[in-house]
Design a protein that fits this description.
The structure is a homodimer of 375-residue chains. Chain A is α/β, with parallel strands linked by helices and 375 residues long. Chain A is 39% helix and 14% strand. The structure holds a DNA duplex (30 and 30 nucleotides).
DNA sequence: TTGACAAATGAGACCGGTCTCAAATAGCAT
DNA sequence: ATGCTATTTGAGACCGGTCTCATTTGTCAA
């Protein structure tokens, strides 16, 4: 990591002033569009600037004004189209309001998130929009607040932190999806999430570090309990992140003696993974297994069958959070807002009745699995 | 767009120096890790910094050093996973080398690209990685070079501009895909691209503003000509951008008297659009129509049938461009490099023989297609 | 004609760092 | 003890803007 950086000397305000034969202050007034200046002065200065190819140094500008007209955005994974859409929403609002956006990636790791916060605060962003990687490790977020910079949480809330947040109604959404599966006749429903965990088995809330995940699990459990399903939590699986463990987790789940007959996939990446595993196992959707996934990713509408999804207003999540942030930056005061956007269940064709008539719970004599696996 | 921005005064180097009872210069040496300082001084300063919660102002730092350790990236569309992957490649190389990334979106419009360049140069980025929206409108890129800042083009070259670029072998890739379709028996092959155009019909190279598009069309035409296909260009269609026109364009194409029997889709967004239209038309792939798409997007592997694609090393495109850029920033000199990465044809199941025995060109009596299609 | 006031302009401080340079101190050989 | 060099420290200029304040010029009413 060499440090030698070569950079040509650029045209400064002073240069322009000299060329135009006016003082630095006058040139600054014209070029910075503030204060007063006579038409002739403007003419001269603008001309000189054009001739020299002057370009203001925003760094210097920000340094004196104390504001950078820049907002920092930290997301879990830029590559995930989910965040891509949110970022587009943010960008559009920001640039319409004359703000620039600096984007950073946390890879869903608190450490990298902290580093990113440092960097962005160092660059003196006027505010931050963050998709926090954890709801417990939050000193760096408190530091943001202490520094007086605006902060908005996107997609995930942090109960302990009094801060504006824009989220979706995860609990309601999960409950709705669960009810839909229950109404189709399912009693053994699996819930699979990517949330990092050493242990794929769900043992309790203390394993979960994200409100989204917790809320969804709660919605799932509540809807299950409402119809008297016993131990719905036994089919919850964690850590189905990226290619790695997910295949095994899902395969294990499906080879249980009382295997689940439906799966709720907690995000589109997991959903895609689940879909592939199911297909590789030679099972068919929804005949053998029903599937509902979070996030209306583009792939979900072109599979056979297309997948029933919980569509999240993620573009609007971006828009709203940027609007709130910019209001704060420009002086809005008041208690932190928590904006909850509604989700929508888009019915497609991945939900059907559970496969065989099969005794549930108690005195079940499990019969041999009939399915042929094609390979 | 209000301008009032409230910001608490932050802890400065001067404050730390005062607290530690040393000079500003000494505090700066300790906190900036340069020059020399005795252990006791370090101790005192570090302690004071911790107590006050000091955080260096990178703006001020950049201003004096003249370098910001930041690189600007301008892509056509953040939301497109294609660019998402490239950006990840860039980010990883950049942060490993201690550089930050500022991301901007051009929406594939030259005007917005120019504005973004202004903004980023204003923020004094040390270098830029750009996916240029046009190969002809390039004054702003020449301005970047004149300013002495490093510049690397990603994915698309600009022949007139002497500048480092990292691209893929588009012509070869298109030719390979075309040959594959030809070998499967196709003679009427459509090429559909998203490139903006008022007129969806291809009339000549002057309509095309991107090397990628041009190269691919050339590869397509060359491979077609090589086996004596007459007027292959009649099936080229432009402007199939986003939801808008694409549906009509594709439907028109397929309702021609001698409709094409295969389609080459120029990127994954167009490919997805094509897939949906085909399905809505009730046609089946590959029985009625074969399809090959550029970019191995995730949806292509889960459709029925999965789509044969030209896989582009887009993550590596990002990695390589960032490496070249950083080398330039840190002083590397020499003629501009043009790095061409290889693509790969991933065969899946969307290519088959053309459908019905149907007279082709002149008096060819095409023989019945032997392949059985399982559906 | 003169005074009062508004508009235009310039001089220079300032933002928060880096970095040069000179002064102060320490270490060591003679 | 003395001189010489190496190390540590502080003072202050500088980066390129913004912005305050004083000065100059112009306008108009009394």
């Amino acid at each position: 990591m060499s440090n030698k950086i070569v950079q040509k000397r650029l045209v400064t305000l002073q240069d322009v002033a000299r060329e135009a034969g006016v003082s630095k202050a006058t040139a600054a007034r014209v070029l910075g569009s503030y204060g007063t200046a006579s038409p002739e002065m403007k003419e001269k200065v603008l001309n000189a600037a054009r001739v020299l190819g002057y370009q203001p140094n925003e760094l210097a500008r920000s340094m004196t004004t104390g504001r950078s007209r820049t907002i920092g955005v930290i997301v879990g994974d830029i590559e995930n189209p989910y965040f891509g859409q949110a970022v587009r929403g943010i960008s559009e609002v920001a640039s319409a309001a004359g703000f620039d956006v600096i984007l950073a990636n946390s890879g869903e790791e608190v450490g990298r998130e902290q580093a990113a916060v440092q960097v962005l605060l160092g660059k003196r962003v006027d505010g931050l929009i963050i998709t926090p990687a954890s709801m417990s490790d939050i000193q760096h977020l408190e530091a943001v607040q202490r520094s007086g910079r605006a902060l908005v949480l996107l997609d995930r809330a942090i109960p302990k932190l009094k801060v504006d947040s824009v989220i979706t109604d995860d609990k309601a959404a999960a409950a709705l999806a669960t009810r839909m599966l229950i109404e189709a006749g399912h009693r053994r429903i699996a819930y699979i999430t990517a949330t990092a965990s050493d242990d794929p088995i769900y043992r309790g809330p203390q394993q979960i570090s994200l409100t989204t995940v917790m809320d969804r699990i709660n919605g799932f459990l509540a809807a299950s309990a409402a119809v008297g399903i016993k131990h719905p939590e036994q089919y919850i699986r964690l850590g189905a992140s990226r290619q790695g463990a997910s295949g095994r987790i899902i395969a294990d789940l499906l080879s249980m003696p009382h295997r689940p007959t439906a799966i709720l996939a907690s995000d589109n990446v997991v959903g895609l993974e689940v879909f592939k595993v199911i297909r590789n196992l030679g099972m068919s959707i929804p005949a053998d297994l029903s599937l509902i996934a979070f996030h209306d990713a583009d792939w979900t509408s072109v599979t056979s069958p297309p997948i029933t999804v919980i569509s999240q207003p993620v573009y609007n999540l971006g828009v709203e959070s940027a609007q709130i942030l910019i209001k704060r930056i420009t002086g809005a005061v008041g208690a932190p807002k928590r904006l909850v956007l509604a989700t929508e269940l888009i019915e497609r064709q991945s939900v059907g009745a559970p496969p065989a008539p099969q005794d549930d719970e108690k005195k079940v004599k499990s019969r041999p699995v009939a399915k042929a696996v094609a390979g």
